[in-house]
Amino acid sequence: VPKKCQKAREHFSTVRTQLESLKTKFPEDHTQPFHEHWRFVLQRLVFLAAFVVYLESETLVTREAVAEILGIEADRERGFHLDIEDYLSGVLTLASELARLAVNSVTAGDYSRPLRISTFINELDSGFRLLNLKNDSLRKRYDGLKYDVKKIEEVVYDLSIRGLNKEATVGAGGEK
């Protein structure tokens, strides 16, 4: 995993070069009208950066760190920037991918990773519940997080009832 993460980080230099080129096409204070043209790409790049950081440290990358990885600004006032909604959408995509990783980890015989993913996703869900999301695409993406939480809870529950991980058994409130 560390070698793959390092290789992925090397690809971000190409991304930075491309975004640097894109920045020159618009006046610094006039990128907002064109934001829809690159919104999806930025959301996907946020996901990729967040996934690499998660695989390296099992932590959530900050918006500022993603902006730095991509070579753009975190603040709107400073020009071409990472919009907060794009950051949050990318993080929600990370949650979906981590739900898949939890299932695949069990298949590969790694019974402790789903527990760590469960803790991370539950903390992420708690953070999103604090937000007052409008009825837009971000709200719909957040609604999908509930299914990711449920999917991971089912994996942890299955591990606990099968006795495949002592921590899963204790964490689920059961006894071995």
TrEMBL record:
Superkingdom: Eukaryota
Keyword line: Cytoplasm, DNA-binding, Endonuclease, Hydrolase, Magnesium, Metal-binding, Nuclease, Nucleus, RNA-binding
InterPro entries cross-referenced by the UniProt entry: Translin, Translin_C, Translin_fam, Translin_N, Translin_sf
GO BP field: RNA metabolic process
MF-aspect GO terms: endonuclease activity; hydrolase activity; metal ion binding; RNA binding; sequence-specific DNA binding; single-stranded DNA binding
Classification via CDD domains: Translin
A Pfam family hit: Translin
Subcellular location(s) per record: Cytoplasm; Nucleus
Positions bound to Mg(2+): E97
Predominant place of localization: cytoplasm
CC annotations in GO: cytoplasm; nucleus
Function: Exhibits both single-stranded and double-stranded endoribonuclease activity. May act as an activator of RNA-induced silencing complex (RISC) by facilitating endonucleolytic cleavage of the siRNA passenger strand.
Sequence similarity: Belongs to the translin family.
Assembly and oligomerization: Ring-shaped heterooctamer of six TSN and two TSNAX subunits, DNA/RNA binding occurs inside the ring.
Name assigned to this protein: Translin
UniProt organism field: Gavia stellata (Red-throated diver)
